[in-house]
C-alpha cells in the first residue's frame, strides 16, 4: 500500500512534469505593438505576435495605415504576414497586401532546393539559409540579402550597428538600394523603434507601445 507522503510526492512530480510539458507545448509567446508616424502625425499601427518553440519561431504581423500625401491624396495600406523560422532561417512566408487599391501576395516555402518564393507571376528559388527583415531579432538580420515579405524580393543589404554607452542603446542601420532603415534596441535586445525616409516624402517612424 502506498503511503500518504509517497502519494503526495508522486502527485507533485506528475504535476511538475505535466506543467513542463504544457509550457513546452505552448511555447513562449510575445506581442510587439508599434504606433506608426509619418513625420509627427500618427497614421496607424504595426503589431507582431511571436510564438517561440525550441528552434522554431512563428511570427504573425499586421500593419494598417491611413494618411494623405501632401494633404491631398489619401493612402490606405493594409499588410498581413505569417512567417515560420527554423534555426534562424525562413521556412515559410505568406503575406497579403493592399496598397493604393492594388492587391498582391507572396507565398514562400522551403524545400530541398531552398526557399521557393512565389510572387505575382514569378517564382524564385533562394538557396541556403534565407532570411528576412526580422526586426524583432537583430541577430537574424545579419546577411547580405533579406527577403521583403511584402514584395517577395530578395533585397541586397548592408548591416551596421553601434552601441551607445550613454543610453545603453544599440543603433542598427540596414542600408538598402533606395532608403536606409534605422533601428534601436535596448540593452536586453528588445526592439524599440524604426525610422526610414519614404520615397513619397516624409519620415516613417515606429514608436514601441509598452
Care to describe what's here?
The chain has 210 residues and is mainly beta. It has one domain: outer membrane lipoprotein receptor (LolB), chain A, CATH 2.50.20. The chain is 11% helix and 58% strand. It is built from one helix and 15 strands. The strands form two sheets. The chain has a 13-stranded antiparallel beta sheet, covered by helices on one side. Strands 9-10 form a two-stranded antiparallel sheet. 16% of the residues are buried.
Question: How large, in whole angstroms, is the Cα Rg?
Answer: 21 Å
End-to-end Cα distance: 55 Å
How many domains? Answer: 1
Largest β-sheet summary: 13 strands, antiparallel
Give the beta-strand count: 15
Specify the CATH architecture: Clam
What percent of residues adopt helix (DSSP H or I)? Answer: 10-25%
CATH topology: outer membrane lipoprotein receptor (LolB), chain A
The helix/strand class is mainly beta
- H and E string: HEEEEEEEEEEEEEEE
Anisotropy-based shape = globular
Count up the helices: 1
Low-confidence segments, ≥5 residues, pLDDT <50? Answer: 1-24
Strands across the major sheet, in which order? 8-7-6-5-4-3-2-1-15-14-13-12-11
Round the mean pLDDT to the nearest integer and report it.
88
CATH class: Mainly Beta
Classify the beta-strand content into a percent band: over 45%
What would the keywords be for this entry?
outer membrane lipoprotein receptor (LolB), chain A; 13-stranded antiparallel sheet; two-stranded antiparallel sheet; 210 residues; 15 strands; 58% strand; mainly beta
